[in-house]
Amino acid sequence: MTGRGARSPAGGGAGAGGTPDRAMLRLNNIQVIYSNVILVLKGLSLEVPEGQIVALLGANGAGKTTTLKAISGLLKTEDGKVTDGEIEFQGRQIAGDDPEAICRLGIVQVMEGRKVLESLTVEENLKIGSHTRRDPDGVRADMQMIYDYFPRLVERRQQLAGYLSGGEQQMLVIGRALMAKPKLLLLDEPSLGLAPLLVREIFDIIKKINAERRTTFLLVEQNARIALGIADYGYIMESGRIVFDGPAERLRGNDDVREFYLGLSEAGRRKSFRDVKFYKRRKRWAF
């Protein structure tokens, strides 16, 4: 595992087939400011290799959602902007581009909080996800694919989305995003507010979609344990910066990550807030 400024997952590593990974998305030393005053991202760099699941982890307020909005162009809706650094998608600079243009390039963000269109049916929600497409046969095939991944939605296809359970709404917003045929899917806290069994089901489906369709994911999560269980690579944020990164398997096994981000000490006890000062004294990690 590496610290801030170290090698990224696409920097010469090998993918599942033993060939070097190619970065689909690259953020290089980006800085984000809100309202020309509030500095949120402070020189953040990361890479997302094509065909992989990359987890972006950290506590509330670390800057995870801001990172996604910088990529998708949605900072503009909140008086935020990238003031330094580069965001490159498939070799093209996209920092500051309009959200619609970025979406047409193949980047789709699933927002935190299950933003379904409550007064429309499940099927109408899914169709809206395909509004930029001009291949009706492909849209019909993908609609069936969504129902195959999320069988619960089949039973509720004519039901208003506002009456779905929280887990069903999360399935719907992921399905709606897939209908846009994304190259890169940005998922913001898909486990938020869901029961553990539903969380496991949704994360298993994310892994299946990645394996079968080779959809690339950048996954923002507070639930580090389950995110690292399906990710290929992970970054850990704190106060607008990357403080750790490494292959997911190595992050899961690292004592410091287990202690301060997965919440377990060697004795299996959850760390308390009084340990934070001790953590700050240990913050110069050596690997």
Secondary-structure blueprint of this entry?
Blueprint: E1 23-34, E2 38-49, E3 53-57, H1 64-72, E4 80-89, E5 92-93, H2 99-105, E6 107-110, H3 122-129, H4 136-149, H5 151-155, H6 166-178, E7 184-188, H7 196-213, E8 216-221, H8 224-230, E9 233-238, E10 241-247, H9 248-253, H10 255-260, H11 276-281
Parallel strand pairs: 3-8, 3-9, 6-7, 7-8
Antiparallel strand pairs: 1-2, 1-4, 4-5, 9-10
Can you summarize this structure?
The protein is α/β, with parallel strands linked by helices and 287 residues long. Helix content is 34%, strand content 24%. It has helices at residues 64-72, 99-105, 122-129, 136-149, 151-155, 166-178, 196-213, 224-230, 248-253, 255-260, 276-281, and strands spanning 23-34, 38-49, 53-57, 80-89, 92-93, 107-110, 184-188, 216-221, 233-238, 241-247.
Task: Provide an overview of this structure.
By secondary structure, the chain is of the alpha/beta class. It has 11 helices and 10 strands. Strands 6-7-8-3-9-10 form a 6-stranded mixed sheet, sandwiched between helices. It has a 4-stranded antiparallel sheet with strand order 2-1-4-5, with helices on one face. It is globular. The model is unreliable at 10-20 and 265-287 (pLDDT under 50).
